[in-house]
Amino acid sequence: MLKFKKTITKNILILVKRFTFLVFLMVVLPSNSYLSSSKITHKVAIIHPAIDVHKPIECFLVEEILPNKTKQFYLDVDSVNCGENICEVITVRMFWDELGRYAKYELEQGDELEKKEGVPFTNKDYKKLEWVLNNKDSELKLMFKNDLVVSNFVEQGNVNVDAVSGATSTITPNEIVEGAVWTCFTLWHWANGEIISKIREINRNQLTHQNLIENYLHHQDDDYKNFAIESLQTKQVFDTVAVLEIEKAMLTSSYPVFKTGLQYVENLSEEKYYQSMLRLFNKGDNQRRIACLNAVSKTSKKGNEFYYDQLSKAVQNFNYQEIEVFLTSVKLTKFTSPVLTEKLIILLKESDNFLIARRAYWFLSDQEILLTKKQKIKLQKFKKKYKNRL
Q1: Label partner for 57 (CA 20 to 30 A): which of 136, 287, 345, 353?
Q2: HSE-up of 15 (CA within 13 Å, CB side)?
């Protein structure tokens, strides 16, 4: 009897856990998502230029958890949306990774893509199609379907003739698979179109702040770092831990990550913004230091006195490019400081770089009305000494 009661209790606990998990999924998953095993199906609305540039079409995007715990997404699409309604249509399964980066395509067994006049793709054509789909800057990006071909014209010997009608493609021949402009156009916009932002949005909504920092911001792939920074900004995560982690990634990753980070920093409060920019400037290389100076000169934030005062104290350690950008920025923001003035006066005499000393002279000359009598004398001495080089 006791054993029977334990079994019942155990079964009840299992049912409670399963029910709790289902409730969790109902809360986490949006109403247009469906769970099946390790797959989740999301109903999404997509604008596709080959179909309709105004009216979105509904698609069923499948999210799948891979054995390595990463995700992939796939979508079954028509191989071609033919402007001339003469193309053979088959199903193509398109794949993207969890960042929305196009990965590959697959065909059902026995299916094959076709070119003009029903000629099947060759192995060379399939390889070329992969190149086309991975070319983010393709001419196809800016084309509208109505401009894709010029109909009712056949130029003898023209290698760019597409489909059985003899329509002539307006795309540069090396941008597409010869004779398959509609297929290339259709699949390129699936691989590189709106679906990317949908995938990124789905993934972002499923990730906690901790996930984004630990698994994405700390990832070796800079695309993951950019995604983490953009997502934390979208989620309005501006706590000290997140800010410092992002600063670290900005300083240790490629420059594009640094640029993405600057957009995040721009969304901080004024106090946090200038503190962050100072840390980034002090720890950054020349390229990043220049970027910090330019960013501050363009920001709409007020209260930059602390930032410029701190930089003024270290101006003797700047190289010429940094001095140039810094003083230009100071002039644009109409910042004045006795500390900066005195440091620039010192540069007139002590700098080993004449270009730096001359730049300091030019700046001080514009500010001469603010100089003390002693400072004006030093400025005049410099002018007299280098009159032929100013």
Answers
A1: 136
A2: 6
